[in-house]
Known about the structure:
By secondary structure, this protein is mainly alpha-helical. The protein has 14 helices and 6 strands. The chain has one domain (2-333): Orthogonal Bundle (ABC transporter involved in vitamin B12 uptake, BtuC), CATH 1.10.3470.
Amino acid sequence: MLLMSFRTFIALIVVFVFFGVTTPNFLDVPTLIIVAKHVAVNAILAIGMTFVILTAGIDLSVGSIVGISGMIAGALLTRGIPLDVLDVTIFPNVIETIAISLGVGAGVGLINGLLITGLNVAPFIATLGTLYVARGAALLISDGATFSNLVGDPNLGNTGFPFLGSGTLLGVPVSIVALVIFAAVAAYVAGRTPFGRQVYAVGGNERAAALSGVRVNRIKVCAYMISGFCAAFAGLVIASELVAAHPASGETFELNAIAAAVLGGTSLSGGRGTIAGTLIGAFVIGVLSDGLVMLGVSSFWQMVIKGIVIIAAVVLDQMQRRMYRRFALEAQLG
């Protein structure tokens, strides 16, 4: 049981040791920083996804939210907001641009939550629909073109966007600092607040939670809004790092986010999981991906290996659940 509980952490150590031995310079500080920057985007996505899965839901739209948030930022920085009636164009500054993009991400999450709670649409179907809507909207914003050179214009007061993806704070990349902040806040909310306890209650037994006074629909909507917010921030980090926004950005990212959460011990049936576990799961996937690239492994084999890891994680999760049930039954029988 102890080995099963710490399986993801053990897997992370094994992966680090393996690539540290087989790949030159893998454990050098510059390499580890690059790996951590790559992990940060998926980990932030996975943090939002964890709240959704804890409520026994799923969010397939996060990859498309990544794309549309970057495109909105690109449009605001390069085209501004045209007001044809007044014959003027407003160019928001970087803070306002980021806030608008994050608001759109949370708005898509709100729509997901309302579809699921208000219209009783299955989470898989609802978020699959918004996946296509958000991706289509991202393409429509620029007719499928890329917004490039997102450095802003000093005369318009909208410079500084690249700092989010490539800047540093006290020598630490901003994206890594953001991951630490997101993880700390999420861990506190999930483990120390009434909202967090209610999220677990809804996922563990929705009917019992409702009977005990938990506003189930409100909790679910908030969980999807958190997921959309995290996805939008991840999209901004990617656009900032590339200094460009592409409408196809974020494709299949939802699968990596789900994989990180499940690998970290979050149960797809809801009610069980931790933010710390999700972070470890994200690092396992990130280190595995970057390590395989450094070893020169074919991208086709990388997909195969990642799929095997995800399947193994789900199988082990099911085994752990059966073991818990068996031990609980034995304890009841004396």
